[in-house]
Design goal:
The structure holds 2 protein chains of 2 kinds. By secondary structure, chain A is an all-alpha fold. Chain A has a single domain, classed as Butyryl-CoA Dehydrogenase, subunit A, domain 3, CATH 1.20.140. Chain A has 8 helices and 2 strands, in the order ααααββαααα. Chain B is of the alpha+beta class. Chain B has 2 domains: 39 residues, no CATH class; 163 residues, no CATH class. The termini of chain B are far apart. In chain B, strands 1, 2, 3, 5 and 10 form a 5-stranded antiparallel beta sheet that branches. Chain B is built from 5 helices and 12 strands. Classes of the chains: A mainly alpha, B alpha+beta.
Chain lengths: 153, 244
């Protein structure tokens, strides 16, 4: 696909997704722009939205994990406040601070499951297919995330 | 059925297969909260920030070096080299490559006759440096194509004096510039060596594909280029006209 078409067609969905994860538009724009730069630079422009969702997920998680930039992220968001479409674990809405603490305790795969299942609302079987693992593994990650969320709240 | 944000985004984009689309519509008819989410997506008309390098307002920023996920299941990357191409097509391509005669093209000219681009073949380091674009259209391959339509895919074949050489490639179209191929290391030069990846031009403007080799690639000769690439040592370009 033409890079410009790839960008204009998919960037709005990815901006909304990253905004949901990070709680602010500015960080979402940074991440989505750099993602497309990297894709275009590497000639990987035949990609679909599920793939882009995963790629954006990784980068949003890295932004949350980046301790040097966390203060800025929390300040932009308004620490402790809930944003318009906050992530939730069951009936518990998560603040940005809570998301950051949770992500700190998860490994890379666990973070990916958290974002795709609890933030994006993708069911466990689909998450397994998207990230190339078994449903059983995803179920284990989900159970651990629920347990961690209880401990941290 | 659980309807995710991704489902809703793909629903709005018209990107869902019919069965899943019906299931999303069933869920939407029964769930006001889901309808509100969908309405939020459809009402989101905030502009997306321009991407430098694609809209002619500066070079594409550098690669961050951050990894990209490998494709799995639903999220796929489909480089041309992994697409199933029938045996007959492979034979046709091999025959076309074997029989191809690479013409010396004139450099591109502007309306006032000004030289815009280097030729698709030149002499470099005592040998031939030339570029050829092979087109795949609906399963049929044409070597050394000069025209494109939407849906065509092109691979780039480079002839350069033997040796491992740095390389870089850009596509220029309508004032935009992009890097269409994954540069993942030097190329082992030879006769009509296929560069990795493929690209699929669209639109009504002519497309110019340029490849820089050796020092020209290492010094980023293509990065600042707009229309003054003529006579840059180590750069060759080929032109694709729209239509036909």
């Amino acid at each position: 696909m033409d890079p410009q078409q790839l960008y204009t067609r998919n960037a709005p969905a990815l901006l909304r997704k990253c905004e949901r994860m990070l709680g602010n538009r500015a960080d979402a724009e940074d991440i989505v722009q750099q993602l497309f730069v990297d894709l275009i630079r590497r000639g990987r422009t035949d990609v679909d939205l599920p793939y882009l969702y995963r790629a954006a997920t990784h980068r949003c998680l890295n932004r949350i994990r980046d301790r040097r930039r966390r203060r800025e992220l929390l300040d932009r968001h308004g620490e402790g406040l809930l944003w318009r479409e906050p992530p939730r674990i069951d009936d518990r809405l998560l603040s940005m601070e809570m998301v950051a603490r949770l992500v700190d305790r998860l490994d890379e795969r666990g973070g990916e499951v958290f974002a795709l299942h609890f933030v994006d609302g993708i069911d466990q079987g689909e998450v397994a297919a998207m990230i190339g693992t078994s449903r059983r593994t995803v179920v284990k990650h989900v159970a651990r995330i629920r347990r961690l969320a209880r401990e941290l709240s | 059925m659980t309807v995710s944000w991704l489902d809703l985004e793909r629903y709005v984009a018209g990107d869902l297969e019919p069965e899943r689309r019906r299931r999303v519509e069933t869920a939407l008819s029964a769930d006001p909260a889901l309808r509100a989410r969908l309405a939020g997506i459809e009402a989101d008309d905030r502009p997306i920030p321009p991407l430098p390098g694609l809209v002619g307002d500066g070079p594409l920023p550098p690669d961050s070096g951050a990894p990209l996920p490998e494709p799995h299941g639903e999220g796929t990357v489909i480089p041309l080299r992994r697409r199933p191409v029938g045996v007959a097509v492979s034979v046709l391509l091999a025959a076309a490559v074997a029989l191809a005669v690479i013409p010396l093209r004139e450099p591109g000219l502007s309306n006032d006759g000004r030289l815009l681009w280097p030729a698709s073949s030149t002499t470099w380091k005592g040998g031939e440096l030339s570029l050829r674009l092979d087109r795949e259209r609906q399963g049929r391959v044409r070597a050394d194509a000069a025209r494109f339509q939407d849906g065509d895919r092109f691979v780039v074949r480079l002839t350069c004096p033997a040796g491992r050489r740095s390389w870089d490639a850009r596509v220029f179209q309508g004032g935009r510039r992009y890097a269409p191929l994954p540069v993942d290391g030097p190329v082992d030069c030879g006769n009509a060596v296929r560069l990795p990846g493929a690209f699929a031009p669209t639109g009504a403007d002519a497309v110019t594909v340029c490849v820089a080799v050796g020092a020209a690639a290492e010094t980023g000769a293509l990065d600042g280029a707009r229309e003054e690439l003529a006579d840059v040592d180590g750069v060759v370009c080929a032109r694709l006209e729209p239509g036909g």
